[in-house]
Amino acid sequence: MQISWFGYSAFRIQSEGTTLITDPVDQASKFKINKQGANIVVASHEDGDPGNAVSGTPFIISGPGEYEAQSVFVQGVTVNGATVYVMTIEGISIAYVGALKVRELTGEQLSALEGADILIVPVGGGPVCSAKEAVQIINQVEPRIVIPSYYRIAQSKGLDAVQVFLKEYAAPSEETDKFKIRKKDLPQEDTKVIIIKQ
């Protein structure tokens, strides 16, 4: 499996003939990815038209519930009027917290995300989780890998840099253009932070 980052909460997850894109449109920042091909689009908010931002005719996942498409299993749970997801791809569970502000997970939210192998979480503050709030979610979920999202990049304004998060969450970190992972290569002990360059 390979994970790439476009900026904000937009990721591409590629696996054996399947391409999944998360939040290709961000209404608050007017961000929209350049047309990319995808089989599946996962949207944490129901505003905008996420399917319009990608080419082809993807299966759109938007809202709570259980979904299956292209051998990808997805469970969506409501949080603060948006949806967080757990996606199972190649036997790896990915908890995806999109463009939203969450102070802590409760009840059904926590039982869905707890113990996920990978956690994608916003860290930039402002309209999304601050570094401190992101760390609280990480401590609840206890993933093996954390991928920060929605932090300051060239075209964004009013967000903290990823370094603010790295100071708040003292864990081994690594920077990469694209993140490739197999289930057997997941860290067994300490949680690792992977920063994917835009």
TrEMBL record:
Give the source's domain of life in one word. Bacteria
Q: Which InterPro entries match?
A: RibonucZ/Hydroxyglut_hydro (IPR036866)
Protein's UniProt name: Lactamase
Organism equals Candidatus Komeilibacteria bacterium RIFCSPLOWO2_01_FULL_53_11
